[in-house]
Amino acid sequence: MENKPIIKYLIDFLDFCEIEKGLSTKTQENYTRFLRKFFGWLKESQLEALKPSQLTPDHVWRYKVYLSRHIDPKTKKTLKKTTQNYYLIALRSLLGFFVEKDISSLSPSKIKLAKDKADKEIKFLTLEQLKNLLAAPDSSIIGLRDKALLETLFSTGLRVAELAALNRDQVRIKDNTDELEIAVIGKGSKIRTVYFSKRAVSSLRNYLKKRFDLDEALFINYKRGWEKNLSDKSRRLTVKSIEDIVKKYVVITGLPVMATPHTLRHSFATDLLNQGVDLRTVQEFLGHSNIATTQIYTHVTNKQLKDIHKKVHDSHHF
Prior knowledge:
Layout: H1 10-19, H2 25-44, H3 57-69, H4 81-100, H5 127-134, H6 141-156, H7 160-164, E1 180-185, E2 191-196, H8 198-208, H9 239-253, H10 261-274, H11 279-286, H12 291-294, H13 298-313
Antiparallel strand pairs: 1-2
Helix pairs in contact: 1-2, 2-4, 6-8, 6-10, 10-11
């Protein structure tokens, strides 16, 4: 197995991803696409016979230069730094596979990601901004839906696709309770529990009281003529529709941050950390496989801690 060229390891790597790492089919498809770019570069560079043990930092550097100058045939532009990093992460994962299988190769740590000066900071809303956003919907059926949708996003930290996939039978609210927790299937088909606040439960109850249709989806559209639409076709909101709904209320409330559903997820995580919840617990709430993904939020809270420390200690006069 160790004597094969790098480009012959794709199937072994994908089997490893599926069986030992439990990665989803979609993730495996992405890895395949990203690695084929690297294999294509090896062939162009007449390195298709290169074995794992022969890969050097210079090869990696030349591949990074290739990625930075590569023109995307769709956009006719060079690849964004974030896109370049997807290709590098896939290569790093392949090297990690070699390590796991005791195949001599370059260390995964030698794959440094491209720096992006335009890296987006984590955008989140302050409690005052959240208060205004959540209070924006009116009392119409659309307003009740949107209120429930916004409250659910902030209360649970759900990804927008997870929210869109929710069904009514998952959200069974008992008459005499304001508690609700449900299981959702997230990225990589991983199941986690999410929890709804009293406000979210109340908003969902008010919304569901007005639902007399038979659609299984929790959040549905109310396009013109929906009252007369008796077709069996589901009116489930799409991810794009949910993004548009959030954008609508951002405009209505005049928020300085162009918030998205993911901004509410960021706000959920930041709020937990600010309340003293440890990083591992936040990781569980968000459904992150790797705590490194969760650590991006510490940049926000670290800045706030620094400001508090400065304020307190600069006030001392000895």
